């Protein structure tokens, strides 16, 4: 393998990892704080993508410039967080925090199934494609291979910003500290006056919005069609589980690991490309069942 | 079961007893199609077409005065649900003739079941060539071509229009169709052009949302030709991403199923790439576009769905044309008012019918012989998406594997002279 191919595979891996990380981030945040594995995350991702495509299509039809696609991605993400994430937490999850994990999993799975059908009702079964945002940024050629600026530069930049931003938010701001305190010990946090219900609601809205943002950012690069959410939830769960549930920096590193593993596989041995993310997951979990960065759970008495 | 035994015993005892059936109040058809899942890009247009076709048949007095009724079964619910629904529909008498199915896997499951239930079954869309090569059926018929002539047409068109290429890469979906179609295509290509070099074989998983890495790899490999038999969202994503990154400028794409994606791809599919249609299916079919029946259907379909017709629509039309032709032939052959099941099945042998393309003929092994249309994409400006130019229609008789032979062996035994002997009609657009 020569250096050029190595560098090319590196670029591809980073671009892919960035998108996977953004989706996994919301999943791991929700799990870290609320101890709920939200299967409906996949649907929120898909709806974020659908919403972006529809909004962008409508704005372009009204004669707006393609750069408006970018703010519309944020709008879609926030809509997903507030209009879907909020009610899901408030109406459903709030009632089942003290129920067994299996039940919690089944409830979020039910939400996933319902939202899958909602997508089909709202957007039908034909694929959509809306690449205005990607085309607006143009291409860049490296080593004779053309990349889109959107995938090579924008996506990794957004992923890095989110990672640093979330770190800062959780450790340096008051709300962030409230979230961390609630994560540490919900009862103790409540006893010193933290409104844990509010913290959970906020966390879930942010997590859902991150799923929506992932879908919004993915939308210019791929066909939007039924079933896209199911694929993403499997992959982002692999990332989150490999990293250790609730580990934000770990998710970033694992996403990178999986992204690079996959792209090198395509260059060296394409037949294994599908297998690589899960192979990495199996190998890591065999050695460290709690994930790369997870710590063995200390049982409360 | 007991009734079935008695009936069979009677039939065996009285071979001449296959007499006319009583004219039913309605001819009930069951059609399996994808209403959910990724393949609904084919299934939903086919269902919409079937509804229009039934409406048209009934508006013209039905078949010999009997109106047609249709029930749909969703293939997207999985093979198990499909077979139990299929069985229920047939055994409860809610369907006398079945149209099944889109998925090749489902066809392979249903063919023996239809034989068991003794229900005439038209395989109206599935591609696998193996059905009649591995088994004999008396109740199962295919009202269209199969993967072998479809791939052979793509190879022939490629070699006729671009004879000097030397390297090829493939990007197919990782499931039976992606693998099988590449087997046939590559075997035929190597047989007719032994000096061609395969520089890359990629089988990304079915439904992959991203082909960026494959595209980078292909840009580094620079093959002259890139084949993809993908369809639906996978094909759309692959072509869009390839076009965004300029891969469509450096390689010629061969896309045997892209006719079904033309409208969705819009301006993303540039000129100069090879497009196939799984038969002579094209909403601007050069021989048929001025015919009244063709025009009327195209207008009605577009008015009701908002989209132009794609190949599953044509396949649905062929199934209904075969149904009508078979009943009419059985009625005429036997001089009856309404044929029995045996008379209907007997009429299928050598049946010729015409849907929205050229006429199709059912061969002695129950395989349909269908002509194949291939073309080159062009952004002519008449539509907001690519249309076809330099269209060739290949003769189905020459491309279809001879009765009793196995396709992969047969295409492997061809050579360059096969190409020169082919009967082709060429049209500018």
Automatic annotation (TrEMBL), chain A:
<feature type="transmembrane region" description="Helical">
    <location>
        <begin position="275"/>
        <end position="293"/>
    </location>
</feature>
<dbReference type="InterPro" id="IPR001851">
    <property type="entry name" value="ABC_transp_permease"/>
</dbReference>
<dbReference type="GO" id="GO:0022857">
    <property type="term" value="F:transmembrane transporter activity"/>
</dbReference>
<dbReference type="GO" id="GO:0006865">
    <property type="term" value="P:amino acid transport"/>
</dbReference>
<keyword id="KW-0813">Transport</keyword>
<feature type="transmembrane region" description="Helical">
    <location>
        <begin position="149"/>
        <end position="170"/>
    </location>
</feature>
<feature type="transmembrane region" description="Helical">
    <location>
        <begin position="43"/>
        <end position="62"/>
    </location>
</feature>
<feature type="transmembrane region" description="Helical">
    <location>
        <begin position="68"/>
        <end position="93"/>
    </location>
</feature>
<feature type="transmembrane region" description="Helical">
    <location>
        <begin position="199"/>
        <end position="218"/>
    </location>
</feature>
<dbReference type="Pfam" id="PF02653">
    <property type="entry name" value="BPD_transp_2"/>
</dbReference>
<comment type="similarity">
    <text>Belongs to the binding-protein-dependent transport system permease family. LivHM subfamily.</text>
</comment>
<dbReference type="InterPro" id="IPR052157">
    <property type="entry name" value="BCAA_transport_permease"/>
</dbReference>
<feature type="transmembrane region" description="Helical">
    <location>
        <begin position="6"/>
        <end position="31"/>
    </location>
</feature>
<keyword id="KW-0029">Amino-acid transport</keyword>
<keyword id="KW-1003">Cell membrane</keyword>
<feature type="transmembrane region" description="Helical">
    <location>
        <begin position="105"/>
        <end position="123"/>
    </location>
</feature>
<keyword id="KW-0472">Membrane</keyword>
<protein>
    <submittedName>
        <fullName>Branched-chain amino acid ABC transporter permease</fullName>
    </submittedName>
</protein>
<dbReference type="GO" id="GO:0005886">
    <property type="term" value="C:plasma membrane"/>
</dbReference>
<keyword id="KW-0812">Transmembrane</keyword>
<keyword id="KW-1133">Transmembrane helix</keyword>
Automatic annotation (TrEMBL), chain B:
<dbReference type="GO" id="GO:0006865">
    <property type="term" value="P:amino acid transport"/>
</dbReference>
<dbReference type="Pfam" id="PF13458">
    <property type="entry name" value="Peripla_BP_6"/>
</dbReference>
<keyword id="KW-0029">Amino-acid transport</keyword>
<keyword id="KW-0813">Transport</keyword>
<feature type="signal peptide">
    <location>
        <begin position="1"/>
        <end position="20"/>
    </location>
</feature>
<dbReference type="InterPro" id="IPR051010">
    <property type="entry name" value="BCAA_transport"/>
</dbReference>
<dbReference type="InterPro" id="IPR028081">
    <property type="entry name" value="Leu-bd"/>
</dbReference>
<keyword id="KW-0732">Signal</keyword>
<protein>
    <submittedName>
        <fullName>ABC transporter substrate-binding protein</fullName>
    </submittedName>
</protein>
<feature type="domain" description="Leucine-binding protein">
    <location>
        <begin position="27"/>
        <end position="371"/>
    </location>
</feature>
<dbReference type="InterPro" id="IPR000709">
    <property type="entry name" value="Leu_Ile_Val-bd"/>
</dbReference>
<dbReference type="InterPro" id="IPR028082">
    <property type="entry name" value="Peripla_BP_I"/>
</dbReference>
<comment type="similarity">
    <text>Belongs to the leucine-binding protein family.</text>
</comment>
